[in-house]
Fold each of these.
Amino acid sequence: MQLTLWTYEGPPHIGAMRVASSMHGVHYVLHAPQGDTYADLLFTMIERQDRRPPVSYTTFQARDLGGDTAGLVKDATRAAFERFQPDALLVGESCTAELIQDQAGTLAASLGLPVPVIPLELPAYSKKENWGTAETLYQLLRGVLGARPARRERIAGTKPRANILGPTRLGFRCRDDVREVSSLLEELGIEVNTIVPLGATVEDLRRVPDADFNVDLYPEVSRSACAWLKRSLGMPHTTVIPMGAGATRDFVMEAAALAGVDPSAFLASKASRLPWYSRSVDSTYLTGKRVFIFGDATHAIAAARVAATEMGFEVCGLGSYSREFARELREAAAGYGIEALITDDYLEVERAITAAAPELVLGTQMERHIAKRLGIACAVISSPIHVQDVPARYSPVYGFEGANVLFDSWIHPLMMGLEEHLLAMFRDDFEFHDGAAASHLPAGSPAPAATDAPASAGQDGLAWSIDGEQELRKIPFFVRNKARRNTELFARERGIQVITTDTLYEAKAHFGR
Amino acid sequence: MTVAATSCLPEARPILRERGQREVFCGLTGIVWLHRKMQDAFFLVVGSRTCAHLIQSAAGVMIFAEPRFGTAILTDRDLAGLADANDELDRVCATLLERRPDIKTLFLVGSCPSEVIKLDLAKAAERLSGRFLPQVRVLSYSGSGIETTFTQGEDNALRAMVETCPRDDARQLLVVGCVADVVEDQFRRLFDQLGIGPVNFLPARRAAELPFVGNGTRVLMAQPFNGETGRALTARGARLLSAPYPLGVEGTTAWLSAAAREWGVPQSTFEQVTRAGRERATAALRPHRRQLAGQRLFLMPDSQLEIPIARFLHRELDMQLVEVGTPYLDRQMVDAELGLLPEGVLVSEGQDVERQLDRVRQERPDLTVCGLGLANPLEAEGLSTKWSIELVFTPIQGYEQAADLAGLFARPLERKARLAV
């Protein structure tokens, strides 16, 4: 038993729903009790979907358990087929149905319906949502293409072709990333063969083998499908996630190599504004800002590269709830000289953020709440998302335009360079007293000074002298916590018991900035 | 998979009974408002990741770092019997209570999986109470989807509390059903002015402060979905006062008057005490009536509040009722309400959501009250909707909230009228 307050991922059948509701002509019959229909609202409310997810629930009750729950599966499958006329059916079970072992998938497959019926076995007590999404996509492709699909060779003289695999409903900014990545490929002279599953039909799945390579756009979702297509068809796939200016260039070069096209003209003509914005002087103030990153592994690892090399931040924390990608995450974290945090325990993430005392948190909706409570700036970079993470405007995070979006959306929560400068200049002004919250934070946000109170000294005999404490208060509130932390660290390392004004300035000189 | 049947109530009102896919929450959802009401209680669901995800999604956003609810998620080890589920549960509860010394009542909440594997939470609660009393009382109830629909979770929680209420045959008015604190305070003031007392509420703001129950207890139901709790109280000697629910001016007056009659309050006193509230509410409803009168209303089944809400919207705001769906029809609980519904309105119990949506599309009502999963898809078809979940999250009972309640239904129509995009 695992005590859970908030969860990053839903159960694996939510992943199957994400695949089904991303596509056209695919219907999912879910053997599930009353209540499991709650999942519909994730799609209709968070993403403002204008249609119900294509899911039929058997809605079994306690009184059915002694009787014929298997009959309910058959009836629901037949009824769903007749009403919705899908081109393919997914049939599976939620957590409770898994326990009563009706074998819903096998039962439905035995009905002899004239469309592919794909049984899904998604173990609810050991796996989670992203795994379920990946498994469903893989099973669906296998179900439609057959266990031994045939590769189709490109006709000479035609353009190279790529499939974009992985974008789904409830994924982070998938809707806009797909458009951005499609236009990258097309401008390179690569035709987008299919996009799967977002917006795909069953017929599109049948055309997957027509492409020269696959773009593994969201490895949490598409890695198993890409790996199978590579194994069974010899189709190569990309490995770079085009998030940030540098990674987008790397992606372009990788895709061009797989397609056998020359990217130099394209790369010479296309760029993001991020590099110049980052080099412009106002951005000087971003240097060394401490940033804590947590999300799915794909977005977290890619965000860390952007943060460190394109924003000039210091990555002080990097973590993910995607245990499947723990190895990649550990490697990335080691590159920043930190240890990766791999956990799906929200409270552990909160503790890690509190301890790291970052100036910016890049995370999921969960970290947004943590950051709000701690009075730290935050931008959302990964699912789980909420309604505000599905903006009306075009807002990709991949590609060159995506890099522009990252610059804007990560910098805005922070103090602007000029604003920070003015704050320092006017710090004695009555309006810039300790209790005044920064102007860019919503009214009612806790003032940073509020988190200043608990003197961390004490347990090991370390104490602040009165003059030291008074001098500390003269430091602007938005760097005061850092000054306190650094000074205490400096004092501890040198066995200093009482921190005086001198200690404060010695520490300042020692750490510099 | 649909079994449609028509049966008759004593007054010969036909009820359409349907069976099929249900687009409603399970009883676990009640935790979202129960934990806000009882601030010294913790709700621990013993279930799956789905249960945790459901409560989190139904609650919308996470506001609290450590909410007073959580899920003990069953894993493969628990199912394979490698870990004794009872030992595991004891361990989780001990960790939890150690972290939260402010918790005085711990509810173990049964779920679909815990019921299917026949984990005996009643026994576990007894065992844990033995260990943690007098600091913490441990109770159990089922919020599972195979047993309960949405608000029935509250009914089961309250029934579990009734079993531990102390016995006292003294005279009291017991108001049953979770209402917002502001509503509770208004009712307390009114009862006080009417000379009715002592008055206790179930649930109270602190779960540890259980009301007494006995032969002198008169029960006034504030919510229509607590039938099992009502019957458990009856079994302990209490008597239920039959009344419509305190929604709207008429409902609130009739509800208060049921208690006033029982306490022998003179009619003149009743008139005088309630006059200000009645007049304020009547005046506040007027602009909403202009908006709502004549509009056709379809209520999908959700919280069991549908029948009293339909009565209010029809009788006080002149809306026309197309269909009034309820997930479960507890006749004893809606006895005083059903007679106030107009002749010929279709009352349906249970749900086959596809068939019901066919009826919505055929009738094209001006307003459809439905769950969050259906609202946007219906709006996309040009049908105005009202999310039903607001009816359990918002204070709607009593005179001072009557116009707020009407406003919930008027707002979607007003919005539709304003928008030209």
Amino acid sequence: MTSTINLEGKTLSSTIAKLNAPLTQAFDPRSSSLSPITIIPTPTPTYNTQAQRLADFETLTAALEYAAVGNAGYNFYDAKGNLRSVLSYQALRQNARISAERLSGLGLAYGDRVAVIADTTPEFVELFFACRYAGLIPFAMPVPVNLGSHAIYVQQLRGMLEGGQASAALANVDYIGFLREAAEGSQGLRWVGTPEELGKLSPLNIPLQANHPDETAYLQFTSGSTRTPRGVIITERALMSNLRGIVRNGLGIRPGDRCASWLPFYHDMGLVGMVMAPMVAQVSVDYLATRDFAIRPLQWLRLISRNRATVAFSQPFGLKLCTLRVRDSDLEDLDLSSWRAAGVGAEMIRPETLRNFAEKFAPAGFDAKAFLPCYGLAESTLAVTFSQIGQGFQSLRVDASTLVDRKVAVRLQAEGRKYSEFVNCGRPLPEHTVKIVDENGMELPDLRVGSVLVHGSSIMTGYFNNPEDTQKTLQPGNWLDTGDLGFLFEGDLYVTGRRTDVIIVNGRNIRAQDIEELAEQQPEVRTREASAFGITDAGDVTTIVLVIECRLTSITDRQSLTGRLQRLVYMAFGVNCLVELVPPHTLPRTSSGKLSRFAARQGFIQRTTLTDQLSAESGDN
Amino acid sequence: MASDYTDTLQRLCHHLKQFTGPDVEITPQTDLINQLAIDSVKLLNLIMEVEDEFDISVPLNALADVQTVHELANLIHQIKSAK
């Protein structure tokens, strides 16, 4: 094993552990001594020594310069709940500036992109800020999470390196092998290495320039896509506007707040919401790696309980994992009463998920009023709407058949009718507007279901080097088409579903197009002869269905194709899928010859007579 | 060391039984993805059980090269030996 970090704790002496410790600790006075005595680190405090400023900065580095004066910061915990490393904002500033001088020595131009595989580590955060200090544009790349995903993961990395036109790329020792493979033969990359290797380069002694609010702060890749990754361009101005909205209006951050997070740093909710937002408000954060949360969700709740965290976000799926996997006997040691903002977002929120969680954790002091549903997307930096803090979640029950047939949300009048219940995601942040439009772009009144469009100060500039997708997504007047469906009621947004181009399984957004492209890479499958979509059953379990028009006649050949496709989809996305082979010309096409996923889904449902088992979802288009 | 591996394999197969019917035989060549249909959620459960059973920590980067029962048993064995 190349990884030593994962074996720490039980096996390595403190001296070896120190050698393997993050770079940051070299600057940490608490661990700078070479004595072999184990030094137990102390987490950064909840109450800061400096006056709190809520994101009233022009740029991210300006915010860090201020936060570095206080004593808050980031704390990283291991799978067993032990504090592994502490990165105060002060140390972050210092380390990031030194790394920025080293990055400057690589001969990159101002605004060049730097790709970093984003494991939950201090090094990632340092590199991210180092890029900003050096005037470079960082983007986070995911860690591999699926069994047998080696080849496809490397392909994903390559897609992002090319899509973001990266000039340098970094990964820690666990992932550098994948990164080097992905970088092979690259024309644009000038440097690939680990943070340790970067640390051996000599810093270029030039003054670091301040960033301008109009320059690009970072790129955010929106899905683990295979061939056509899309990097969202976010400027410093858009970022700071969104962060201001989040910490002031969304969360009402105040002294005494502390965050706890397991969200991946390569996801917008993890990076913007739980790395940047706390820093721009000088709040301390306790981190658990996503992997460690996923395996033992209890550790996250323990962190909240032990450190008296007040703000912690999750996708609904994460809450489900907690409800399912935490044993009742574990509840006795938990005290979740400090948790005042339990943010929920990033995918459709089902009321049942929240109710089940609240019921399960009420004995541990969880207050259902802490639920804070919100809505957002990477294309609008992160957040668009927040519900009222401290009010818990509100929902609306609407008649299911009217919703599907007429795309109108009619509030349930009589008991006994089949209904759909939607969670209130609240109101847009200041400087943002949400509207609902029909297929022709005409604005719809309250309770009419249509496409959710967003306008405002945190909207992306576009997709990096992808004018075609930018034009499709950013409509005239700079209205962002979110790809989501929903309705407004009394100023609040209710999201009713995704359009059929995105499938959400176990909390992950998977683009239908990516699955279809995987299929089309097979020699037996022609372009435009594969259609992928999701079907959700009454138990809220989503299955991916891949329908292929297939000319193969031999059973062995057909089985070989089906098995291979299931395997590829699993390796790329970590989910099982149902493959249906149909005769040519079965899949419905639009007049322009494009496949209609919505119609393909309808056809599949009819063929398999699943209609009754599926939950009512409002009109996809 | 060979007997350690056999022991690891046996204990692992015991945990893998939950993913199959009683009549399915699990061999070292059994494919975790295609034959046992271990999706990402089942995988988390399996990793937790494996970590508890063998008292190890399984790094994510290593799972990217695991497809069969033998490869997983081998990985567990390697991590244990490195301790």
